[in-house]
Specification:
about 400 residues; alpha/beta; Rossmann fold; 2 domains; 7-stranded parallel beta sheet; 6-stranded parallel beta sheet; 13 helices; about 35% helix; globular
């Protein structure tokens, strides 16, 4: 017996074949060869800011831990699990759409010369290249609803789209999502913290949509210290927001506000572990919000406005609280003395692990790969039943 190609062989080598008359049933696929196309805007994983790139790195590690073969297309300074291939040696920042197209073109040229079971992309610029390969393509959307991008995605029905929250999927009904898969992280990298610093924390990009100014107002209103990690991006509107809304509030707070700038993993951990609570006063439909699960994983409760994915991520009274105003946020922040940080952390470790995320993706990848390999097997007319008498079909 000869398999049509190596991809089909990988999926079929350990697959149980059971003959039912003229049909052969393929039960469970095994090890896959998976291409993960990250972005070229930041390294994978990133040194500091970069949610998409962090998730791609975690997924690469999780899939290799599940014994899949992974090739990651990212910048040359990246350090993902699996094999790394690069078009750009260093990140292209600020994000550049044309650079992303060149990065995707490089990745797909290499993918076409290889034999992948599934290709997973994480930027809109890569999606049109899906039509140039025979393997199934999965695209995870990492942003909120953008009208021109919704139209872009709808033009590629052959791509299997993944939403990172149910709310994100609900807001773009034109996109046919194959799954909702929440993010996950390496839980062992987040040791517990006792909140002994007694301060409130804000972590993220300084922007009106992130509510940096609201966090400063909440801390001021309840007379508590606040420590911030993050910065405004080097774009005009972000810099204007910082100058008008954030800088004066930092000055008003004086010694009660400590701004750390953008923080890498270890300083971020120190900030979160010592915090009484993480404030998440968003004013947009945040599709996920990794910082929420990072806080929960060290036992720090999240006090968040109920927009975007918040109601899916925060379990009220267990891992934090969903509130609807700055006043309510301040009240919650002042009444946390009895909060069970150990229970918060335990629940976060149950829900937000890298392994869970990788298993969710692997299940989808396997389903698509088996379906695709079945079509390819059927295209080989000479490949028949063990006794040569029955037509082979996969279902």
């Amino acid at each position: 017996m000869s398999w049509p190609n190596a991809s089909v062989h990988r999926l079929g080598a350990k697959v149980a074949r059971r003959n039912f008359g003229h049909a052969v049933r393929f039960d469970v696929a095994t090890n896959m060869k998976i291409a993960l196309v990250s972005t070229c805007a930041l390294s994978t994983p990133p040194a500091a800011y970069g949610g998409t790139e962090l998730v791609v790195a975690e997924l690469a590690r999780g899939l290799t831990e599940l014994d899949h073969e992974v090739v990651v297309y990212a910048t040359g300074d990246s350090r993902p699990a699996g094999e790394l291939k690069s078009c750009f040696e260093r990140p292209v920042w600020p994000p550049d759409e044309l650079a992303e197209e060149r990065h995707a073109a490089f990745a797909f040229q290499d993918i076409r010369a290889s034999d992948f079971d599934v290709v997973h992309v994480n930027h809109a610029a890569a999606i049109p290249f899906a039509s140039t390969i025979s393997a199934p393509c999965v695209a995870t959307l990492h942003h909120d609803r953008v009208e021109r991008l919704v139209q872009h995605y709808a033009a590629f029905p052959e791509v299997s789209f993944v939403a990172i929250s149910q709310r994100q999927a609900e807001l773009s009904p034109e996109v046919s999502f194959a799954r909702v898969i929440h993010h996950g992280l390496d839980t062992d990298l987040y040791p517990s913290g006792d909140g002994g610093g007694g301060y409130l924390a804000f972590l993220g990009r300084f922007a009106a949509s992130k509510g940096t100014h609201v966090a400063l107002d909440v801390a001021h209103g309840c007379g508590m210290e606040i420590r911030l990690g993050g910065a405004a991006h080097e774009v005009d509107d972000a810099q204007a927001y910082f100058a008008k809304e954030v800088k004066p509030r930092l000055a008003r707070a004086g010694e009660k506000a400590i701004w750390h700038g953008e923080v890498s993993h270890e300083p971020k951990l120190e900030l979160l572990r010592g915090a009484r609570a993480l404030l998440f006063p968003i004013d947009w439909e945040e599709p996920f919000g990794l910082v929420m699960i990072e806080a929960m994983l060290v036992g720090t409760p999240v006090i968040a406005f109920g927009r975007g994915s918040v109601s899916e991520v925060v379990e009220d009274g267990v891992t934090g609280f969903v509130v609807h105003s700055a006043e309510e946020m301040a009240q919650r922040a002042a009444a946390l003395d009895g909060f069970d940080r150990a229970a918060c952390r335990a629940r976060a470790r149950e829900r937000w692990s890298r392994r869970r995320m990788a298993q969710d993706y692997a299940e989808l990848f396997e389903e698509l790969a088996v379906r695709s390999s079945g079509r390819r097997i059927m295209s080989v007319s000479s490949f028949g039943d063990m006794d040569g008498s029955a037509a082979l079909s996969a279902r």
